[in-house]
Request: fold
Amino acid sequence: MSIALEPIPLDAPVRGRSLWQDAWARLKRNKAAVGSAAILLVMALASIVGPWLWPHPYDRVYPQYVRMPASLEPYPREERVLPELEQTLKRGRVDVIAVEMTDSGVRAEIASERGIDPRITRYVARNDLFSNPRIAGTSADGKSAVIEADVARLRFIAGTDANGRDLFARILIAIRISLTIGLLATFVALLIGVAYGATAGFLGGRVDNVMMRVVDILYSLPFIFFVILLVVFFGRNFVLMFIAVGAIEWLDMARIVRGQTLSLKRREFVQAAEALGVSNRAIVLRHIIPNTLGPVAVYMTLLVPKVILLESFLSFLGLGVQEPLTSLGVLIAEGARNIQGARWLLLYPSVALALILFALNFIGDGLRDALDPKER
Amino acid sequence: MLRYVLRRMGSAVPTLFIIITVSFFLMRIAPGGPFNLERPLEAKVMENLNRIYNLDKPLWQQYLLYLRNLARGDLGPSFVYRDFSVGDLFANGLPVSIQIGAAALLLALLVGTALGAFAALRQNSPLDYLVVGVATFGITIPPFVVAPILSLVFGVMLGWLPAGGWGNGALANKVLPVITLALPQIAIVARLIRGATIEALRSDHVRTARAYGLPTRVVVVVHALRAAVLPVVSYLGPAAAALLTGSIVVETIFGIPGIGRYFVQAALNRDYTLVMGTVVVVSIFVVLFNLLVDLLYAVLDPRVRYD
Reply:
């Protein structure tokens, strides 16, 4: 059996555009929102893939490179290598006749009255600057030799922190953690807020009164107090903690959804569903909630930066993510402590945070404009 | 009007009561106690301490005791700052926090309203974009980034103002904290005023005022702005309560002896009475300012009546 494709008649009526298509077209015209979305996407991808590709693991400590300023030049600096090699060899009590740089590393001619002990290489190996030291040749009397070693060249394009860890790798992982936290908490807030608000709005009457009264009371609770208690209570398990934050941030969401529901439930399609005998549960799930998604989507994009800021704030107080894992707030707090000597430690994480927050704010504003029917 | 105020005050009491109850029991569920130090105290010492502070009684008795003392206005002794009662701590710290917060609030209102109104009057001009951009910047840069930078630039590099400290309330010491606190508020107020003014300028009553030939200045200030401050008023209620009760970040970074610091410290130290005291003070501020907002609404918007 075959299905014949029907030819589209030429005098077909002009297809109407749905509200969503309209909104999408408007959103695409908003340059700030599109640009922000692109930036955000790049940052998100970098934070997911970056830590695997980047040569420095985020928790690797380079003890000899503590608080190195950001630079594109590789470390160790050329002028530092040879004196370092000389000093290292002198510790092995040999005379250093000449040191020079080679393509792959360094080369030194050494001599000693008592003969060269091949174990001299161990002194070199012990210095973190050099690796794979070897004796390239010994003179016939065994009193002089040539030593070669590789020099590991490391780049820290954003500098290193107070423990000698690569800041860029840490920023990448921090973006990952901060975004995860933001999305996770927002998702929890969404789930609770939408369910609660839709139920209250749909049932109405006394139930609605009581439910919204509860929200009012929770509203006037000092919110930081709650978070701190939760942190104390849950330990510093960050997943649990941000489920908890999401569980607090749902209040606005519930109010928005309730307001929407109140107006939706008087609409014809809901009354039709009621007349057909659809259960309350199904009406809320199939008819009410999908129609509240517009304002909810806008609020969500604005809630993500709020949660990220909150996380940074908690981290700033020392209640956030624990080492060696890190988040933008932790990095900024560290940067603020080191601001006198190492400004890049504050600068780069702050820039990353500001970029994310900017992008999310612009996307949220763009969405709001796009979904606003008055703008048509 | 008076009846409305009294009724609202009356309805605040159960709210406060619930807040206090929830906070009291939540605090006690959390593991640890005020005297669980890193080096454990001797059992006998611990027992005596618990008896002095009534911590050995059953929880519900402690709760009733706390409520009774609270009704008398006694917030109890601080467990960690041993020489002070919670009331003393607030008597010292609250005026400091209120000074800084009120100054920041005033600054935010003046600057924010001016910026927002100018941006709205020149919608889609470079000035408008500048204000919106700066406002977004102000909202996205958190105070714990702004504070160290201000302190570094004006305190350390330029040396114009003290980098931190209270200096017994010298004016120079207040400048940076007030600016730090005010910046995000300026940004939010400017955005709210801009949006609302644009809307108000298009509304019928403003068009009518223009049609009567009133000068632009009068139209904007008397008719447009009056309608435009409504969202700001409802935003500023909770914001003012938060500002006046002190900011943890600003007080920590600039070393200001307000009450903002107590909250986190007290919660971490399990200083039960101090935490409860902070909760009570903050909630009273929140309730009070929400009431104030509703009353202001009636003054500003003739459609709202409280009878």
